[in-house]
Automatic annotation (TrEMBL):
Species the sequence originates in: Anabaena lutea FACHB-196
Domain of life: Bacteria
Ranges of residues in domain Glycosyltransferase subfamily 4-like N-terminal: 14-177
PANTHER family per the UniProt record, alphabetical: SULFOQUINOVOSYL TRANSFERASE SQD2
Protein name: Glycosyltransferase family 1 protein
Alphabetized CDD domains for the sequence: GT4-like (cd03814)
């Protein structure tokens, strides 16, 4: 198959969407497909044998890390040269609209996928009054596709409930070799705890942005004597968070990649994830693969991954943070229980390799192409 993949974000940006796309492109290319990635320009022209067509963009005012690339006629020329069998638009917002347009003009089957819960993000940027309008725009875009994919059952239900049609599940995936309990190290634990490896070590990995609600970790940190918190990642909310956590045992690590990131997960006592806007929460699966116990909000796609008391802990996101504090204290005290939680978390992650997730996507593509023929 020849697959044209439109995405609003790609390398060198680091996030869960890019992680999924990296593995997807790699698998598709290795199994005899040809992929053309059309994304905001990021300085790369190839990934795992796939050509990357970069479109000049400008930083989003509320989120400078994210580039907005506007549709342009040259994209149509690139598509005509590539001659795709199918177009896949990831998070159709701006650049993705050109993928929808050219699928109609060139009569190419269209698949769309939903990875970022934008309507909920609006609440965190003071734009909640636009939520209804955004759902209507999303419905208009997604309903152009022959198939709409979501990464959790909660999002399948939510999109269907807002009038988006032909919705199905694209299963989760994780690299169980890169994220592994064997990567735990005293050196990494000392680094993350700023030379206090004997102290309880809490970890957050992900974007430092308002919608992640990282501020809610502070009372958990303060409730545990001597605890340290490592925040791995970066983003537009970092300065606000530095002020919020001033005077606490919090270390802003910045980005970690590859085995360093795997070692960070494996070396921590608990992974705290308070976000209520996750369509899946891929980073939770990475923590679980590394055997790091997860404490997360019962929201969005997270309950698809975490079974409370079995392979992690869930707390009610609307409740007082005390429930999360209790879960964290319990995790740090009950050594026998946490050993089983770590084991169960790893076993759950082992069920979800990237190969199976991308084989499923390939089957979806073939079905859509077959239906069109």
């Amino acid at each position: 198959m020849r697959i044209a993949l439109f995405t609003e974000t790609f390398l060198p940006k680091v996030d869960g969407i890019v992680t999924r796309l990296r593995h997807t492109v790699d698998y598709l290319q290795r199994h005899g497909n040809q992929v053309l990635v059309i994304a905001p320009e990021g300085g790369i022209t190839e990934h795992k044998g796939a050509k990357v067509y970069g479109v000049t963009g400008f930083p989003l005012p509320l989120y400078p890390e994210l580039k907005v690339a506007l549709p342009r006629p040259a994209i149509g020329y690139a598509l005509e040269q590539f001659r795709p069998d199918i177009i896949h638009v990831v998070n159709p917002a701006v650049l993705g609209l050109s993928g929808i347009f050219y699928s109609k003009v060139l009569k190419i089957p269209l698949v769309a996928s939903y990875h970022t819960h934008l309507p909920q993000y609006l609440q965190h940027y003071g734009l909640g009054m636009l939520e209804g309008l955004l759902w209507e725009l999303l419905k208009g875009a997604h309903n152009q596709a022959e198939l709409n994919l979501c990464t959790s059952t909660a999002m399948v239900e939510e999109l269907s409930g807002h009038g988006i049609e032909r919705v199905d599940l694209w299963q989760r995936g994780v690299d169980t070799e890169l994220f592994h309990p064997d990567l735990a190290s005293v050196e990494m634990r000392s680094r993350l705890s700023q030379n206090h490896p004997e102290s309880p070590l809490l970890l957050y990995v992900g974007r430092l942005s308002a919608e992640k609600e990282i501020e809610r970790i502070k009372p958990i940190l303060q409730a545990i004597p001597g605890a340290r918190l490592a925040l791995v990642g970066d983003g537009p909310h970092r300065q606000n968070l530095e002020k919020h956590f001033a005077g606490t045992n919090t270390y802003f690590v910045g980005y970690l990649m590859g085995k360093e990131l795997g070692s960070a997960f494996a070396s921590a006592d608990a992974f705290i994830f308070p976000s209520r806007t996750e369509t899946l929460g891929l980073v939770l699966l990475e923590a679980m693969a590394a055997g790091c116990p997860v404490i997360a909000a019962r929201s969005g796609g997270i309950p698809d991954i975490v079974t409370d008391g079995v392979n992690g802990y869930l707390f009610e996101p609307t409740a007082d943070i005390q429930e999360a504090i209790n879960a964290t204290v319990r995790l740090l005290q009950e050594q026998q229980e946490v050993t089983q939680i770590r084991k169960n978390a790893r076993q759950e992650a082992e069920n979800w390799g990237w190969a199976a997730a991308t084989r499923q996507l390939q089957d979806y593509y073939q079905k859509v192409i077959g239906n069109r023929e």
